[in-house]
Design brief:
This protein is α/β, with parallel strands linked by helices and 286 residues long. It contains ten helices and eight strands.
Length: 286
């Protein structure tokens, strides 16, 4: 891919109330603020948007602000799991898939859903097996085909994702089914000790590449991730790969109970400001 390019922010970089909820009116404000920071779009988590808002209602803030959108599929740890109640999880994932398709129809985003759709967030997965994991991959591929989209699957860290060796296993899954791609987060990759050589082997499968530091600190804080090496390798990412940045606001860290692995005290919006400057310095962000 060519650099510099457009970069997406993330709704989790903004303050969330308790209980967490994002309305279209709130989303419009967040999009406008991040547009001023130089971001071209935003990843949203439909699980945080009250269910009575339609896909069209969620698309409107993107239309009004001229921003692009990506929809994140998320399987909450207090809900059904893929390996005990897969039909219920697929039913829940239809909403982010529908929003993805509607954004794409309105030319407000690529036809690609992202996120950790393979894992039951933060929970052990009774009944998990490699065969069952591949059956879930087949179900995701069918869901993507139904909505004429792709699904980019995000391996998380070991605290949030109990899948054994998720990067390698998801890479195998992607090679087995159509419409599945990789959502590669640098912070989660670092947590699993993924070397650059392994990243380079995955390059052509990546549909969403996300900059994130250890503990969701600003990217400029040296915590052992060689962002310069990633940038040099990014030339070989697919031309349609989307680039993003995902810090967390402290409110989000508290809501999701991630205090042990996310030590940052920097407010999410401030981190977005710092990250935008850093990504421009690396000639990633247009």
């Amino acid at each position: 891919m060519k650099l510099p390019t457009r970069v997406f922010s993330h709704c989790l970089a903004h303050y969330l109330p308790t209980p967490p909820a994002i309305t279209p009116k709130m989303l419009k404000k967040l999009l406008a603020v991040d547009r001023e920071r130089g971001f071209a779009g935003m990843v949203i988590v439909p699980a945080l948007i009250p269910k009575h808002y339609s896909a069209n209602a969620i698309c409107e803030p993107f239309q009004e602000t001229g921003m692009q959108g990506l929809s994140c599929g998320f399987v909450a740890g207090n809900g059904p799991s893929q390996f005990k109640e897969p039909k219920l999880v697929l039913k829940a994932l239809r909403r982010p898939a529908r929003i993805t398709a509607r954004l794409a129809e309105r030319r407000l985003g690529p036809p690609r859903m992202v996120g950790p759709v393979h894992t039951h967030h933060g929970q052990k997965m009774p009944g998990w097996s490699v065969d069952g994991f591949f059956e879930w991959g087949e179900a995701l591929s069918r869901l993507a085909a139904e909505f004429d989209i792709e699904i980019a699957m995000e391996p998380l860290n070991k605290t949030e994702d109990k899948t054994p060796q998720p990067f390698g296993l998801i890479h195998r899954l992607i090679e087995s089914f159509e419409r599945l791609r990789m959502h590669y987060d640098t912070g989660h990759a670092h947590a699993h000790g993924i070397p650059l050589a392994q990243f380079c082997k995955m390059l052509q499968t990546i549909g969403y590449f996300e900059f994130a530091n250890v503990g969701r600190l600003p990217l400029s804080v040296d915590k052992g991730i060689d962002f310069n090496a990633y940038v040099r390798a990014m030339a070989d990412l697919p031309a349609d790969c989307v680039i993003g940045d995902e810090p967390f606001d402290p409110s989000v860290i508290e809501i999701f109970g991630l205090q042990k692995i996310c030590k940052t005290k920097v407010l999410g919006p401030e981190c977005l400001e710092q990250d935008a400057a850093y990504l421009r310095k690396l000639r990633v962000m247009a």
